[in-house]
Amino acid sequence: MNNAVRWSNDILAFVLELGALGALCYWGFATGSTVLTKLLLGLGAPLLAAVAWGLFAAPKATFAVPLVAVLVVKAAVFGAAALALYVRGHRTLAIGFAVVVVVNTVIVTIARANES
């Protein structure tokens, strides 16, 4: 794969990861009914996602796990983010986000498999 395409997809992947954390944060603060629940959900959901990502899905993850496990973590984080947007009424954004995530994940996964 061309280096420019690879870099572009890696940058897009990073932006999508940040978007997922933002969506989870937004969902938590918008969903909570009290200040405490807003804080717990708004900070806890993205924190939980970031920890799981860092442990298992990041390029330099703490634990080297099989590709299927990485994809499961990615699906859980991105799926939760898309669902968070969807349930907060941003259906078009949620669907668009999910489509871009799937396309990007397929491209990045294929590129990394071809490097091995």
UniProtKB/TrEMBL annotation:
<feature type="transmembrane region" description="Helical">
    <location>
        <begin position="12"/>
        <end position="29"/>
    </location>
</feature>
<keyword id="KW-0812">Transmembrane</keyword>
<dbReference type="Pfam" id="PF10823">
    <property type="entry name" value="DUF2568"/>
</dbReference>
<feature type="transmembrane region" description="Helical">
    <location>
        <begin position="93"/>
        <end position="111"/>
    </location>
</feature>
<feature type="transmembrane region" description="Helical">
    <location>
        <begin position="63"/>
        <end position="87"/>
    </location>
</feature>
<feature type="transmembrane region" description="Helical">
    <location>
        <begin position="35"/>
        <end position="56"/>
    </location>
</feature>
<keyword id="KW-0472">Membrane</keyword>
<dbReference type="InterPro" id="IPR021214">
    <property type="entry name" value="DUF2568"/>
</dbReference>
<keyword id="KW-1133">Transmembrane helix</keyword>
<protein>
    <recommendedName>
        <fullName>DUF2568 domain-containing protein</fullName>
    </recommendedName>
</protein>
